[in-house]
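Handoff note, outgoing to incoming analyst
You'll be picking up this chain. Sequence as last confirmed:
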Amino acid sequence: MAKAPQFSRELAEVRRRELIDAARASLAARGLGAASVRDVAARAGVSPGLIRHHFGSFGALLAEAYRHVVARIDLGIDAAIAAAGDDADRRLDAFLCASFEPDIVDRDLLAAWLGFWGLVHSDPGAAAVHAETYAAYRRRIETLLAACAAARGAPCDVRAGALGLSAMLDGLWLELCLDPAAFTPAEALAAARDWTAAYMARGGARG
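Most recent structure output, in case you need it:
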């Protein structure tokens, strides 16, 4: 009997994760306008009432799904950076390479992401998740650029660099997902590398 509470917590976590996965799948398949409590519940194989039980509202579930998708992407990128070792240039390049891996340049991910972006305009919880995760993404880039600048012994406007590089990566990713025939991930990576090298060479926006 003493193990029942722990079992209940584990079951609750399983149910939460199933609902999060189902919400992401629903957004990818149907879009924000057609994603619904009933569709998500059906995909998870649970009753619709469990969504409110575990998350409080459908919007809160979608916001949590947004957070989980970002966390999954971050895990892959962080692993690639860590595997690159301590060299600043290699770590930055590992980040660029990871940004165009097949599990990121993925149409299903794009479809879910478009749903999340739509949600940001209407749901304060999703807007808060977006603000938090985007700020963390930019800080990662700023840290990588700052390390490269320090290794060169040259000043660099890392904030402007992070804004520019994040916008470029987002644009390349979006086009790759929308039309894989437009250019290849290797070409996108080469463009990102060229931009980054040029930015660092001139000392960033201060140059």
